[in-house]
Specification:
The chain is α+β, with helices and mostly antiparallel strands. It has a single domain (about 30-190), classed as Cyclophilin-like (Cyclophilin, Beta Barrel). Helix content is about 25%, strand content about 30%. It is built from three helices and ten strands, in the order αββαβββββαβββ. The protein has helices at about 1-30, 50-65, 160-165, and strands spanning about 30-35, 40-45, 70-75, 80-85, 110-115, 130, 150-155, 170-175, 175-180, 185-190. The strands form two sheets. Strands 1-2-7-5-6-4-3-10 form an eight-stranded antiparallel beta barrel. The protein has a two-stranded antiparallel sheet with strand order 8-9. The longest helix has 27 residues, at about 1-30. The radius of gyration is 19 Å and the shape is globular. The model is unreliable at about 1-25 (pLDDT under 50).
Length: about 200
């Protein structure tokens, strides 16, 4: 009887501790929801480790820049990329590029978010990608260019949506490869205020 009580008490304590961790966890970092045509993806941004990338992403989200953009590049077994093109494959106007924060110690692990860029290290603007596998060759310490890609967040809910996206059929469109045959749009990006 006493041991049963002890087990119940421990389980109850763990439950309440996890609830508490959830509250402080959400207060610690910004949490946003990407409302897409395939479902919602909730992301946590690592503001402390990647302040510039986090601020940049939130500014684009709050300005409405991401509304109506698409996931224009999807490579199964690699990543899904979006945030820069409209459904008619026109690139949206962006703010000035930001400094690359790939030296922040965060790694391109499965379901993390990173800033997309050109061959120039400090060229990231609005485009981002979600790693669908561990891509350590994109990390600064292993990157061919010695710079790598800056991780600034991770998916905390909606993993099944990311997985579904990663498996869609792609084609070449407007001279670009790996474009989904059926458009996958970002309808809105909202800050989660009640967590």
């Amino acid at each position: 009887m006493q041991s049963t009580f002890r087990i119940c008490f421990l389980l109850g304590s763990l439950f309440f501790l996890s609830l508490g961790a959830g509250i402080s966890y959400a207060e610690e970092n910004p949490v946003l929801v990407l409302k897409t045509s395939l479902g919602d993806i909730t992301i946590e941004l690592f503001e402390k480790e990647a302040p510039l990338s986090t601020k940049n992403f939130i500014e684009y989200a709050e300005s409405g820049h991401y509304d109506g953009t698409i996931f224009h590049r999807i490579i199964d077994g690699f990543m899904i990329q979006g945030g820069g093109f409209s459904a008619d494959m026109r690139q949206k106007k962006t703010n000035a590029p930001i400094k690359n924060e790939s030296s922040n110690g965060l790694e391109n692990k499965k379901y993390t978010l990173a800033m997309a860029r050109t061959s120039a290290p400090d060229s990231a603007t609005s485009q981002f990608f979600i790693n669908t596998v561990d891509n350590d060759f994109l990390d600064r310490k292993k990157a061919r260019d010695g710079v790598g890609y800056a991780v600034f967040g991770k998916v905390v809910d909606g993993i099944e949506v990311v997985d579904k996206m990663s498996r869609v059929k792609t084609t070449t469109k407007s001279g670009m490869q790996d474009v989904p045959v059926e458009t996958i749009s970002i309808e809105k990006v909202e800050r989660v205020k009640d967590k």
